[in-house]
Amino acid sequence: xYSIGELSRQTEVKVPTIRYYEQMGLLEAPERSGGNQxxxxxxxxxxxxxxxHARELGLPIEAIRELIRLSAHPDRPCDDAxxxxxxxxxxxxxxxxxxxxxxxxxxxxxxxxxxxxxxxCYVIRALTDHDLCAHEHV
Length: 138
Prior knowledge:
Elements lengths: L3 H8 L3 H10 L6 E2 L5 E2 L2 H15 L4 H11 L7 H33 L10 H7 L10
Antiparallel strand pairs: 1-2
């Protein structure tokens, strides 16, 4: 059995985050000791590690909730789990494309300034006037 502090150390998830996951219903409420201290078992440790890894991969809470629900039915087909992770992959690819546009625009702005004084600075002008941007990046 693990205290919340030990669970936190084992998984590198902060105590308030563990409590938040409990509150959200992602992590089952643990047993309590005689002194009302949370006591987590191995299953709680594994669940928290699962949640942490899913969050590191950027999965939203609702997707994690669905994956947890699906994991309770090991004999079912994994189509829904596949769909969830493929949706996340598409979301990541969209963010990467947006970041590439941002990188390109920032590089263009950063290399476009040849002024010596802020009053003539292209960086300041470009940030003030969105029409100076080469393409849409929002």
